[in-house]
Amino acid sequence: MKIKNICCIGAGYVGGPTMSIIAQKNPKIKVHVVDMNANKIAAWNSENLENLPVYEPGLSKVVKEARGRNLFFSTDVNKHINEADMIFISVNTPTKTSGEGKGYAADLKFVEACAKQIAEVSKSNKIIVEKSTVPVRTSEKIKEILISNNSDVHFQILSNPEFLAEGTAMRDLEIPDRVLIGGDNSIEGKKAINSLVEIYASWVPKENILTTNLWSSELSKLTANAFLAQRISSINSLSELCEETGADIEDVSKAIGMDSRIGNSFLKTSVGFGGSCFQKDILNLVYIARSEGLEKVADYWEQILIINKHQRDRFSKKIINLIRKENLKPKVLLLGWAFKKNTNDTRESAAIYVANNLLNNNIEIDIYDPKVKESQVDFDLSNINADYDKSLVNFIEEPFLNVSECNIIAIMTEWDEFKDYDWEKIYKKTNKPTYIFDGRNILEIEKIKAIGFNYIGLGRK
Ligand code: NAD
Ligand code: UGA
User: Fold this and answer.
1) pLDDT > 90? residue 461
2) For residue 1, what pLDDT is reported?
3) Residue 277 a catalytic site member
């Protein structure tokens, strides 16, 4: 079946960029991205491309090309569900905060609400594509909801997890390592898989489009994130050992990464991984394993999160202990709030946790990030502690506004501009002695020390 009309429910970090590329590469297919959040849709439709709700290098160019031609953003969810022959569900699947599985299981209420709405308004056969990251066997649940709410229409379910990383989303979508499509083994199932393969084949070589059964596809997504996060926790755990033994984590990372069996990506030590997915997907994996009675498997994967929290906490403690030991002014300049560079996304950013630890010790903080707004910082801090002391927090738009009052600068995000600062000029303005806590190991130690800074990185002396 040749797809003519796509509807994507969820205009977030995945739905927006993914559908923009699908529309750009398939000009004959109409793509409607719908969301119940009217402000978000208005932002996607804004004339000024600087105001798109998602910041991703290269995104505005693609939106400019396709929007109004065959890419549309709308709040009219029912209309576009009804008109579509293929519907992507690309809504959020956060960790449950109440009920069975609280704190671990993925909350499928948004996915289930979509399935119910699709069933209620559909008058013609449709292919439903799970784009959201979901627990293995969710497609079965979706199918049940669809069938029990609408027996007149035929639905085929596909799993098509997304592997893009924020900050490099457009490149990841343009040249994906692979596209994964899971579906039923029936004739109808295979036809549905082919329809989606054809859409991706407009720009992805067919040998990079992998087709599997539904469950393998769903579980592969959780597993991929768990493996990536596992590498970060592994290197972060060793950064602490390096500090004790005098080895340098950057040397160790390079040395092991040059082994082609290990590979060099995701071996960069940090103050802890953030982002909306690693933690939630590992918690979900742990929950699934425990539900199956696999305690040892669950404990194994949970350890990744334990190390991640430990890394954030020990970084905070280093700062707090130094202030106490040296009797420094309790004020820290935090550079970076986003969970990684080249995104305005702050979900689960290590900066939030470190800031909270500092505030709990009555340490004042100045916060600067090139892409994050003050309202977002306030939202994040309120979220972690509703009663946080606002008088201790200054959001600044000029990074070194108050640097003359600071003894401590902490780099939280690896934004390129931080590397490029004129550190000599900054040093002159600071209140001496001045310490740099490099939570991303991005500065050149020798140069920074030669200027006069005390340098405290991770896993290096
Ligand atoms: P997001 O929060 O940025 O966007 C989700 C959107 O869905 C929101 O705008 C919300 O308003 C909308 N929504 C929720 N329920 C709705 C409904 N019933 N009707 C209409 N709109 C609805 O989330 P995201 O970061 O795009 O993630 C979406 C999914 O993709 C998650 O399962 C996530 O795990 C997965 N994923 C995310 C990334 C990433 O980098 N962010 C990468 C790969 C996979
Ligand atoms: C991650 C995966 O990389 C994507 O493949 C996946 O699609 C996505 O999760 C998802 O499912 O949401 P993302 O979280 O956007 O993408 O970004 P990453 O580049 O993976 O970085 C995650 C965190 O790990 C960031 O805080 C980053 O700074 C940190 N990180 C990354 C390290 O600390 N060290 C590294 O070597 C790499």
Assistant:
1) no
2) 80
3) yes
